[in-house]
Amino acid sequence: MKQHQKTVMSVQFDEPPCAPTSENILNERTNSLRSLLKERLKKKYQDLDTAYCAPLKLHLFKRADEDVKSEKVLKGLEWPINDFLNAEDVIEYVDLFKPCPITTEDIRTVLMKGTPGIGKTTAVKKFVLDWTEGRTHQDITFVLPFNLTELSLMKPEKCSLLQLLGLFFPELTDVDALQHARVLFVLDDLSKCKLKLNFWYIKSCSDPKKELSLSALLVNLLRGDLFPKAQIWVTSSSQGADIIPSKFLQRVVEIQGLDDVDWEEYVRRLVCDCTVATRAIVHVKSSNALYSQRSLPVFCHVAATVLEELMTNACNMELPLTSSEMYTHYLLIQMRGKAEAKWMKTDAEEILNLGRLAWHTLEKGSLTVFEEDLRKNNVAPSAAAELSQRWTTLFKEEELNKGKVYHFAHQSIQSYLSALYVFVNYKTSKGNVLSCTLAERVKHLFKPAEVTDMYRRAVSKTLRSKEGQFDFFLTFLIGISAGPSYESLSCFLPDSCQRGSSENIVPYILKNIENTTSLNLIHCLDELNVPYPGCQGNVEENLTPSEWSAMAKTLLNSEDPQRTFDIKEYLNPEVAFLRLFPVIKASKVLRTPHLYDDYKGDPDPLISALLSNPSHLKELNLSFSYAVSAKTVECLEKLLVDPECHLEKLVLHNNIRMSETSFKTLAEALCSSNCCVKELDLSSNYSLFDDKGVVRHLSKGLGNPRCPIIVLRLAFCSVDHTGVLALVSALSSNPSHLRELDLSYSRPGLQAFLQFCSLLEDPRFKLETLILVNIDWWKDDTPCGTTTYRRSLTDIISDACKALASALSSSNLRVLDLSINCLEDSSVELLSAGLSHSACKLEILRMARCKITEVGASTLANALRLNPSYIRELDLSYNPVEGTGFDQLNSLVGDPAIKLEKIIVDGLGEKREIEWLRQHEFPLTLDPDTASVNVKVSEGDKEAWHNYNRQQPLPENPERFKPYSLVMCREALAGRHFCQVEWFGRCATIGVAYKDISRKGHFAACSPGYNKKSWAITVSNPFPLSEALHDGVKKRLPNRSPWRVGVYLDWSAGTLSFYDITYEEAGLIHTFYAKFTAPLHLIFSMSAGIRLLPPNPSPVCCHDHDLWDMFRGTKDCKGCNGSKAG
């Protein structure tokens, strides 16, 4: 190094001439110097085979510090959406230094960042080679590439910039030529630079002849104090990119690796045989562990080498499915190339020597092996040179201007060799191979070096690393020691090497995944072919903008033909909506239920997504969405009338922010000639349809022969007789389009329904599916409890059934759902007249919860015998049909003369006495650690209530539910168990869930019944509405409001039943049938409160109670004993 110093200090430049140099002479000298420089650089980089360079795309970022501020961005999303959208822009290679088209600002300093080995240095070499050969960037006079690793080797006390240029580029001895030329300094791999670059404390210097330290030279050059007109290109790893303050950067680009098109092209370029290349691509796609690495050019090279060899020459060998297997085969292929007959023992020894060097440099966070590293590992320089010559694909020698250094081909190769070395030597070194300090060595001196301990220490070391340099290492260490690669590496492994097992490491990995945000731990499970069972919510929450961008790129390049984006799959829907915006714009199916519109900027992101590419969108679901504002409705109107819009399905369930005017506007748009919507679902918008005339507006379009709607769902919209008459009028004018109509929970009135049945008899009316669940036939003011009401209701239903039976005998109906209607056996007899008619084409009939007994079942059996050719499915769930009549009906299934294939009788046999249920009583307690911050749990852990006024200060706990009003029980249930629950308030949700149900994120991920991990029912008052919920699918139940609910679980049988136990009887509410895979816990969501009841609770009193009275047992009732629960 002293010799380097003397050389630097001895470089002198010619003094500039006293007389001004003419422009022509200056140009000639500049061109001459340029030619000399090009020749020098061409010789230096001539070994680069541009034909095999991986295609790399540069993604433009408007902010230099966004990865540093990622946490703030994810939480606050304070920066405009336009900035985010521009983060996805791809800048062309030739436009790297072109001014910004918006600001026209000159680009002086460009930072290119990317993960190690992604191709930054290759991009620099290609840039320089293209410049020397006249292909690109000929407007730049001098390109001056510096390797910052080499600069780190030089340690002169002081050096001027001109002296430094003279040392590396002796041709450039003319100061005038430099000062008048366009110069580009290329500083490659800032993250490897060992010089301390302090931008705030180093003094400014603008004199290129003044001698400074190398650190000061670089800082002044980057700040623009030296050569302010020169341009600078800096490359760095993503972790080291924040060394340069953002104020000194005009452009930041990132190499994100190969996308799904590029990596396939790259593999085809590397593999000679097209058929083999195609097979290799398909194989990589078949393995999650391999497919996740496809963006790395070096992995593509390794995979292409291995798969081409195995598919061509080793037909019987199993193809690798994990990264460690792939790199193991790659290493063995290199070894076979060195020994024709058999592998020499020295080969294995040399590989382990490389592994020792790899581990030493990996711990330092460097790919480069310096002379000092060779000395510390007792490797002679001649031996290092020999290793680089023998193992050129693993270990490379780099000739610098003033010496040699060595480096590993890629961080993944360095990590693989390190993992092999550590595993082989762990037991013989008594674990010291993983010890960095003397204290660690002493700590493990007397401990047995077990493989389990190795895993724990390696995971801990990886998680402590802020730079992430041990991520590959941990993956390979687990794959080599406990995966399929173990057998293939027998030539390296001594007898003392103990093979690991997944049982030793998987529980520890799963435990750490719950407590950290490391994506790499999930990759470790992939190496063991162990799927990750839990939700990756913590990982998603802490993704950086670069990782979100990579996720978006993967989704965009996926092979899903539907291109579905469902916001329920993400724990932070608002963040995912903005971060995955390019995916949303390209999606054919867009589902954003429960999306809150907290964005106040302009343009609204939802509107931008809808209008950006209308030809893509086929389905749009905005159910329960707070994002459907007046602006959004206006946007929907524009979308629906756009001739380029091909939207076929629109779902707008329960959009509470939509006004009456908005619905009318939307209805008009749906009726336009350009509208392509075939399926329209406006269910659960009862507050707008109730006497507001919305159906009448909609009917105007339905009557148009050009209206494309074939499916119309208006369930729970309280469509009254005027709305039904408007539909009848419209469908009479246009009877040939509509195929499915859902009027559940409507109140049509008898006269309007009779007219509708007349329409059904019209042969031109092509309706095939009619859903009439829980129809309210009564619309007069007669008190509901009188005998007059009961007699009149029976007559109304009888008249309605007669008309419907007549329609069945001549209509095109294929599916009819009459569930939750008080039909009884008399109405079944009336309907059977139509069912038995030979012209009836009905195939599916649903009459669940219709109070049908065995008499009605016998009547249906007789009807099917008279008309056996059509009905194939019959649903009589929750009807007391047991008896000989049902046996007659059931005997028709399997009869070759009758089409009936299936009878559904859910709930049959689930009716039980309260005394029998209480034999399986199981004591439960609420878990305060799971309670939301606005839920207070009593001291005995038996009661919980909602506190509206304050959020109680509670310690952070990973078990706590982040959404409001939730609490779970401690005890796990996995047998036959019964428990009793009492609730109060407006509504409550009572259910069971697996322990690992999500605790934070999207509403649907945490709430009982809205995901695959829970089953529940909802109850409410004063409107007695009940629903059964599982995986977000709602099933309406008969209107009832049991203040006390019994929950009976038969885990092994796969049944979960809910009972109304308010009045000492067990009335079956609903039964779920499922194959449970883990113990279940009781879970509650409440508007006011819940209580776990004792085995024999006091009876519910007869007094009227306010909704907010806390519980209703006689012991708690103020009317019964003058006290009130509190």
Automatic annotation (TrEMBL):
SUPFAM superfamilies: Concanavalin A-like lectins/glucanases (SSF49899), P-loop containing nucleoside triphosphate hydrolases (SSF52540), RNI-like (SSF52047). Residues 904-1099 form the B30.2/SPRY domain. It holds the Pfam family LRR_6. Keywords: ATP-binding, Leucine-rich repeat, Nucleotide-binding, Repeat. InterPro entries: B30.2/SPRY, B30.2/SPRY_sf, Butyrophylin_SPRY, ConA-like_dom_sf, Leu-rich_rpt, LRR_dom_sf, NACHT_NTPase, NLR. GO terms for molecular function: ATP binding. Residues 108-165 form the NACHT domain. Gene3D superfamilies: 2.60.120.920, P-loop containing nucleotide triphosphate hydrolases (3.40.50.300), Ribonuclease Inhibitor (3.80.10.10). The keyword Cell cycle does not apply. This is B30.2/SPRY domain-containing protein.
